[in-house]
Write a structure and sequence with these properties.
CATH class of the largest domain: Alpha Beta
Low-confidence stretches: none
Strand order of the largest sheet: 1-5-6-10-9-8-7
Mean pLDDT: 92
Helix content: 40-55%
CATH topology of the largest domain: BirA Bifunctional Protein, domain 2
Bound molecules: phenylalanine
Strand content: 15-25%
Structural class: alpha+beta
Shape: rod-shaped
Order of helices and strands: HHHHHEEHEEHEEHEEEHEHH
CATH superfamily of the largest domain: Bira Bifunctional Protein, Domain 2
Number of helices: 11
Largest sheet: 7 strands, mixed
CATH architecture of the largest domain: 2-Layer Sandwich
Number of domains: 2
Radius of gyration: 44 Å
């Protein structure tokens, strides 16, 4: 009986002293395996007199159970400890600064283009696109600017060959769309895109720039429709309360043609240095589609009329964002471009 007590005490002590799972496993083998000390006690039972056997047997069983439970409990304790130790070791230091992800921003000209697109889509217009390398025919001929027309001097052109050029205005797309419609009205579209003109680049000139053309052809379209539409656009682009005015002008593809001014959004028309004291800022060219243009494209000018306008996107962006050099749009300086993350 003393021996049982001894084995039990030494086992419990060994369990208590075991500080890792490996040692605990050794203790388990030492006491509970077939060759272990508790099994040895069982074997000793054979040598005892018959009347002592039951008590001895039950004591050994109690001892075995106690040791088993103690080992299991210790095992759980050590496993949990190991888990926490692992978690501790693998802890990520979330205070370390992360690698910065640099996001691009929408280009200011694209912001203006998208604003125009949304505005006109809202009024039921569709968006048309066309080639930048254009035929002389669409850029000039169909726009009522034949070969020897002096108006060709208004737009110095990059020619690729005598019949192919880089389009000088989005009006070329207007002509393609008119031709495509085969005399079927109504037409209601805008055509945004890049255009090219031979120019010496400086703060206000660029050999490449962007326009958006607007075109409406239907029955009973008048100059008043053009004015209402452009006034709506001016208010959407430059803030409410803007008024516009028409000044007579000349474009071969519109008659009458107008230059459109918007009341200065910076001084509300009182006169400031942006509008050079006049209270007005010129923003685009427009007019009623020339009857000859309608006719050349298969529309009966007695039945149909239309208006067209062409707005320069750089000009609008420069006014809206206070940019004083057009070259900023094309030199891709991150310090300039990143300012526009607030606007997209
Ligand atoms: N195409 C003209 C330009 O580039 C603008 C314009 C378009 C004028 C449509 C009238 C009508 O200057």
């Amino acid at each position: 009986m003393d021996k049982i007590q001894q084995v039990q005490e030494s086992a419990l002590q060994a369990i208590q002293d075991a500080n890792d799972l490996e040692t605990l496993n050794q203790v388990r083998l030492q006491y509970l395996s077939k060759k272990g000390s508790i099994q040895a006690l069982m074997s000793e039972m054979k040598t005892l007199p018959k009347e002592e056997k039951p008590e001895f047997g039950s004591k050994v069983n109690v001892c075995k159970q106690l040791v088993t439970e103690a080992i299991d409990a210790k095992q759980q304790e050590l496993e949990e400890g190991a888990l926490f130790a692992n978690l501790e070791n693998e802890k990520i230091d979330i205070t370390l600064p992360a690698t910065q992800v640099k996001l691009g921003t929408v280009h200011p000209l694209m912001i203006i283009q998208q604003e125009i697109e949304h505005l006109f889509i809202g009024m039921g217009y569709t968006i048309a696109e066309g080639p930048e390398v254009e035929e002389d025919y669409y850029n000039f001929e169909l726009a009522n600017i034949p070969k020897d027309h002096p108006a060709r001097d208004m737009q110095d052109t990059f020619y690729i060959d005598p019949n192919t050029l880089l389009r000088t205005h989005t009006t070329a797309m207007q002509m393609r769309e008119l031709e495509k419609a085969k005399g079927q009205a109504p037409i209601k579209l805008i055509c945004p895109g890049k255009v090219y003109r031979r120019d010496d680049d400086d703060a206000t000139h660029s050999h490449q720039f962007m326009q958006s053309e607007g075109l409406v052809v239907a029955e009973n379209i008048t100059l008043a429709d053009l004015k209402g539409t452009l006034e709506h656009m001016a208010n959407a682009m430059f803030g409410s309360g803007r008024t516009i005015r028409f000044r007579p002008s000349y474009f071969p593809f519109t008659e009458p043609s107008v230059e459109v001014d918007v009341s200065c959004p910076f001084c509300n028309g009182k006169g400031c240095n942006v509008c050079k004291g006049s209270g007005w800022i010129e923003i685009l060219g427009a007019g009623m589609v020339h009857p000859h243009v309608l006719e050349m494209n298969g529309f009966d000018p007695e039945k149909y009329s239309g208006f067209a306008f062409g707005v320069g996107l750089e000009r609008v962006a420069m006014l809206k964002y206070g940019i004083d050099d057009i070259r900023n749009f094309y030199i891709n300086d991150q310090r300039f471009l990143k300012n526009f993350d607030r606007f997209d």
